[in-house]
Amino acid sequence: MKEAVVDAKRKRLKLGPTKIWTGLVLHHKDIFVSHVLPNLNAIDRYFFSDVNTESFDVLKYAGVSVSKLEWGVSQCSSISTLEELWNLSR
């Protein structure tokens, strides 16, 4: 099971960025900032800033104080956040 997940991740990395990433986040930052970013909570913004330099730059473009982003246990609102917390606690 884990091998299939690892293989899928490797295949995804070889494909490069998706059309939605390049279109929305890189080429239409203003739309991302006005329609998507307001729906992200502090934890989502923190994880988004860690994706790559482009995501970090989009948050800076939006005026988000990226250096002050952090996350805490009280804000676990998604499965991915809970998984991250679980992995850090081991």
Mean pLDDT: 77
Biggest sheet architecture: none
Shape: globular
What is the H-and-E element order?
HHHHHH
Strand fraction: under 5%
SS-based class: mainly alpha
Total count of domains: 1
Keywords:
90 residues; mainly alpha; globular
Structure description:
It is built from 6 helices and no strands. The chain is an all-alpha fold and 90 residues long. The radius of gyration is 15 Å and the shape is globular.
Write a concise synopsis of the structure shown.
66% of the residues lie in helices and 0% in strands.
What's the arrangement of secondary structure elements?
Layout (H helix, E strand, L loop, with lengths): L1 H14 L3 H9 L1 H8 L5 H8 L3 H9 L17 H11 L1
